[in-house]
Amino acid sequence: MQRKKECVAMLLAGGQGSRLYALTTNIAKPAVAFGAKYRIIDFPLSNCINSGIDTVGVLTQYQPLILNEYIGNGQPWDLDRTYGGVHILSPYQAKTHSSWYEGTANAIYQNLHFMKMYNPEYVLILSGDHIYKMDYAAMLKAHKKSGADCTIAAINVPLSEASRFGILNTNPDGSIYQFEEKPKIPKSTLASMGIYIFKAEKLFSYLEADDKNPNSSKDFGKDVLPAMLNAGEKMFSYCFDGYWKDVGTVASLWQANMDLLGENPEFDVGDKSWKIHSRNPLAPPEHIGEKGKVTNAMVALGCEIYGTVENSILGSNVIVEEGAVVKDAVVLANSVIKANATVSYSIIDENVTIGKGAKIGVAKDPNAEIVVLGRGLTVGDNVVVSEGQKHENDILA
Amino acid sequence: MAKTAIGVIFANLHDENVPELVRRRTMASIPFGGRYRLIDFVLSNMINSGITTVGLMTSNNYRSLIDHIGSGKEWDLARKDGGLILLPPFSERHDKMYTTRLEALSSLTGFLSRRNEKYVVVADCDGVAKFDIADIIDYHESKNADITLVTHYGKVGNRSDFMLVDANEDGRITEIKHTPHVKEGTKADIFINVMVINRQFLLNIVEDSVTHGFTSFESDILIKQLNSLKLYRYDFQGYYAGIDSMAAYYKHNLELLNKEVRDELFGDRDIYTKVRDSAPSKYGEEAVVKNSLISDGCVIEGVVENSILFRGVKVEKGAVVRNSIIMQDNIIGKNTTLNCVITDKNVVVSDQKTLSGCSTLPYFIQKGTRL
């Protein structure tokens, strides 16, 4: 008997995420921390396991160390399997060639042998850039029902933002008649989410053809999908109407974090019917001190809070000393806000130390810009960091 | 150190200390400190000292323990060689189930003789402390002892079964008193149910006991053979929380609100436990939380002071929780006030209730109660 997997997922996790500035200097975007205890990649990986997809190739390229270490053997997502499971796929050297992944399609093409190992009927392509909960099994069911060669998950976006996306123009039955990558004048507001299900054989043949095409930029959105459409392949959209957030910019990352707060949050990570799995820190419960004040906040294990925390997200083991105020901010794991310092409207990366009495950012308002302080840096006592500044090195005076 | 010792943990001994909490579980699986169970401290001490083979002895009510421990992977004990080995009751057709430590150890001869480590670290789950087991083994080795008993100088509580241990300057034990009549609160060197024994020696005494019909490890081995055996005492001077009564359970949980205690227990070594993938805890607009430990998955809309909240607790608006220990997945309803209360898992206290105990006699609510 030949063993096989019905559907193999390929997760594109090589992106640099340059619009996140210092937050991605040393780590790949999918490894960026989110929601106090998670990393972005927890969402597609949890979606996979919750959808019954247990074979996932994670394609890494840019700064993969932290991402690789985080994924490990996949145990936190129950993806440590004897057959299948999660596999890190980095660029490699072959007998006749060796190259970096040149585009999304090329990255998948270079791992044809990985997919073929599982003899799949379908391949699910994902990216590691979004925060969302989605049942890929329901999408696969729709894909089988329509008999499409390719199904593209799509979401309605505001018309004003439509030209940032790949836009699908569809017939009433959901079939796609036109695909426009970042159109100046969009004809519809149905945006591709970068989530595709292909019939495996079709995907393999189009990737092989694309590789031989010298004029191709080796990108799904720009090359492979238009080529399939031009050749008359059956392509369908799959409409998704849940929460879906691209966290590719500082402002959207900050907002997505804030979307977790409140009694009826826009996005609920505590939903027990769709658990988000993650690697958990080994830390004791958080301690709120005698003078601590924590309101409208999400706090991870191991925090010690002696000051004030308001409208904020704190990663594990963050220390907020007495008199310090953290407001409208995202503070990632192991950072220390020393006594009487204030942090407003900022994203503070992991292992940052903010000196006594320092003042980071300004009160949030629609015109203010978010401060970003990169991993491991130190801000000296009483130093003022004004709004919108992005730093990756120590600021001692 | 790595391959010189194996661990043996007794999950059920001392169940009588806190009968309320062990109605449906073992001493080992009693929740403690927000997101732990008592066994986590013992097991983490062993792992952090390089022990990679641990036999876990259970006798009854061990379902919750098995649920907690699983394959042992969260303690890095899912291994090909050794790892965590569950040792549930085992008896040959006509034998009775074991009731004493010695009888339990007799049932271990198979496990013990298949290993080749030199020492066995035996520990019960009735205490919370951070031991450097490697240091205890070094001491045991340097004394060339047969058995080293770990003691802690402290007040004799109201437990029904304990041993006081006297030793000379060199640490050699000169006298052991098994549950003597002493005034409660008297300070003495108390055996805290952790010991190091040479594996081969343990196998010998177990065999010897069977032929002599011995039943008690304490009186038949330690006390009767005090002079012929090389028994040493290791004086543990760190923080020790003995769980010998409900009052002690309550007191030692709340002691975790002291930074010094937390730093000692959690400071430079990890305490491993089962993870549940709960979301981080959430604090509402009206939350007021002071001097408390809050675990993941909690949602707090009310007031929490001087309390320990386990995972997944919901404190609704207007609710006030003071000086209390609230276990996993409790719901404390709107405008309800709790003071000096211990609630077991899955308790729901509906709106507008007032419940209060006092610090020496906390009010206990059983698992799954709907009030």
Can you walk me through this structure?
The complex is a heterodimer of chains A (397) and B (371). Helices cover 18% and strands 28% of the residues of chain A. Chain A has 8 helices and 29 strands. In chain A, strands 15, 17, 19, 20, 22, 23, 25, 26, 28 and 29 form a 10-stranded parallel sheet that branches. A 7-stranded mixed sheet of chain A has the order 5-4-1-6-11-8-12. Chain A has a 6-stranded parallel sheet with strand order 14-16-18-21-24-27, with no helix packed on it. The mean pLDDT of chain A is 94. Chain B has 371 residues and is of the alpha/beta class. Chain B has 2 domains: 5-266, Spore Coat Polysaccharide Biosynthesis Protein SpsA, Chain A (Alpha-Beta Complex), CATH 3.90.550; 282-365, UDP N-Acetylglucosamine Acyltransferase, domain 1 (3 Solenoid), CATH 2.160.10. Helices cover 21% and strands 29% of the residues of chain B. Chain B has helices spanning 38-48, 63-69, 101-106, 109-114, 133-142, 199-212, 217-223, 246-255, 259-266; strands spanning 5-10, 31-32, 36-37, 53-57, 83-87, 119-124, 127-129, 147-155, 163-167, 173-178, 187-198, 231-235, 240-242, 281-283, 288-290, 292-294, 299-300, 303-305, 308-309, 314-315, 320-322, 325-326, 331-332, 337-339, 341-343, 348-349, 354-356, 363-365. In chain B, the strands form 7 sheets. Chain B has a 7-stranded mixed sheet. Chain B is globular. Classes of the chains: A alpha/beta (397), B alpha/beta (371). The A-B interface holds A 35-37, 75-76, 261, 263, 269-270, 275-278, 280, 282-301, 304, 309 and B 33-35, 73, 256-257, 259, 262, 265-266, 270-272, 275, 277-297, 299, 301, 308-309.
